[in-house]
Design a protein that fits this description.
422 residues, alpha+beta, Beta Polymerase, domain 2, cca-adding enzyme, domain 2, 2 domains, two-stranded antiparallel sheet, 22 helices, binds adenosine-5'-triphosphate, binds magnesium ion, poly(A) RNA polymerase activity, Poly(A) polymerase I
Length: 422
């Protein structure tokens, strides 16, 4: 009884106000929606359930961006969904979701969440388990931002909006749904998501949504490191990565993700390198190409590694030892805040260790480089360095030419290099 009153009060203060937006106003072309997502909705409809495409995909389609993936919200429970789809698996514990697996795509389906009254929270107010289901309107209040709480009905081609999300989207403003202070307590990752989406859509953050970032940022320290790592990768692949990093830094959030960023962003050369490299990443993201986490982290941490390397080299004149100790010390500092998979660390180190070898172009070393599975990444890395004047452009061009040459031409190129060195 008491719970029911609280639930009603919460819904009252959250003010979900239903509006239907038709095609002429939202402008989504159904042909730009994944056929698999439409198929999943249709199958759920046929089985008597509601189903809508929701979240980032709708936000991105309205903005004319290509969605990364398509999520669906339904009133079917995870078990019911699993029963309907042959290739489906239930994932997650805190939030149980269903993945329906297609040839080249996974469609994520979530069941409408209920208001958080039955939810288990820790002493900081962070949501621990959340598997209570509710109505679409309740579900809309559980989403993070108004622009992420839009539901697309594929049958009617209408968008269902409870929180003026379309209005915010046109204004390009990020507004959290409900009380910012409570919503950040429930899940502090929302602080980072606010910054990310604002950069992604080149927009701003609404007054309260921003005000409580400064007040509550310390909550980020309670987020599991693996989740923080995932969020960092999302930041770096949001399509406007450099701007997003600058915002992260100006809101003093880098201490939870990339403690060395402050120092890096004090040097013009490092800023140039990060900007050039991240713009290149944005372009890849825009073209739907993959970007590996190890490459991204190798970029972000490189200015620090390079500085340490140069310091060490001045003292010991040994390239290898200098690079090992520089990369170890930078990674050690980074691991204090973020858990990074061993394989990613090893790939980052390989990219870094190969950098001095590109400069020397010694006969044997050149051939050895090519056999390294990380050669392409390390070569792409020197191209970015060359572009931002951090690496000799003529040497970078030499490598490009060398890669395009046949065996005989390669040998001649190496002969010339080795002659000039003598
Ligand atoms: P993108 O996939 O482009 O990063 P997205 O908005 O789709 O952006 P997802 O993490 O895929 O983000 O989540 C899908 C949707 O689930 C969001 O749009 C939002 O409605 C909801 N959501 C995700 N994370 C949270 C969260 N931490 N708190 C509340 N709602 C969330
Ligand atoms: Mg998504």
């Amino acid at each position: 009884m008491f719970n029911k009153i609280i639930k009603k009060l919460r819904m009252f203060f959250m003010k979900p106000k239903l509006s239907y937006i038709d095609k002429s106003k939202h402008g989504i072309n159904k042909l730009n929606i994944s056929e698999n997502a439409i198929k999943v909705c249709e199958t759920l409809h046929k089985n008597g359930f509601e189903a809508y495409i929701v979240g980032g995909a709708i936000r991105d389609l309205i903005l004319g961006l290509k969605p990364k993936d398509f999520d669906i919200a339904t009133n079917a429970t995870p078990e019911q969904i699993k029963y309907i789809f042959k290739r489906a698996r239930i994932i997650g514990r805190r939030f149980r979701l269903v993945h329906v697996i297609f040839h080249k795509e996974i469609i994520e389906i979530s069941t409408f969440r209920s208001s958080p009254i039955d939810i288990k929270q820790d002493k900081f107010g962070r949501i621990l388990t959340d598997n209570y289901f509710g109505s679409q309107s309740e579900d809309s209040t559980r989403r993070d931002f108004t622009i992420n709480s839009l539901y697309y009905d594929a049958r009617e081609e209408t968008v269902i909006d409870y929180h003026n999300g379309i209005y915010d989207l046109k204004k390009k403003q990020i507004n959290i749904i409900g009380e910012a202070s409570i919503r950040y307590k429930e899940d502090p990752v929302r602080i980072l998501r606010a910054i990310r989406f604002a950069s992604k859509i080149n927009g701003s953050i609404g007054h309260d949504t921003l005000k409580y970032i400064a007040r509550q940022k310390q909550l980020i320290a309670n987020i599991p490191q693996s989740r923080l790592f995932d969020e960092l990768i999302k930041i770096l692949t949001c399509g406007n990565a450099f701007k997003c990093l600058m915002e992260i830094k100006s809101n003093k959030l880098h201490i939870f993700l990339l403690p060395t960023l402050e120092e890096t962003l004090q040097k013009t050369d490092s800023i140039n390198f990060l900007k050039t490299s991240l713009e290149n990443t944005d372009q890849r993201v825009l073209n739907g190409k993959s970007v590996s986490p190890s490459f991204l982290l190798a970029i972000i941490l490189w200015p620090q590694v390079q500085e340490e390397y140069e310091k060490n080299y001045k003292k010991n004149k040994n390239v290898y030892i200098s690079m090992v100790s520089a990369s170890d010390s930078v990674i050690e500092d980074q691991l204090k805040v973020l858990a990074i998979h061993k394989r990613i660390i090893s790939d980052m180190k390989t990219i870094w260790f190969m950098q001095p070898k590109f400069e020397t172009r010694k006969n044997k070393a050149s051939f050895n480089l090519l056999q390294n599975p990380k050669f392409k990444a390390a070569y792409d890395f020197i191209l970015l360095r060359a572009k931002s004047n951090d690496f000799d452009k003529s040497i970078a061009q030499w490598w490009t030419k060398w890669l395009e040459s046949n065996e005989e031409e390669k040998e001649n190129m190496l002969k010339i290099i080795n002659k000039t060195k003598k």
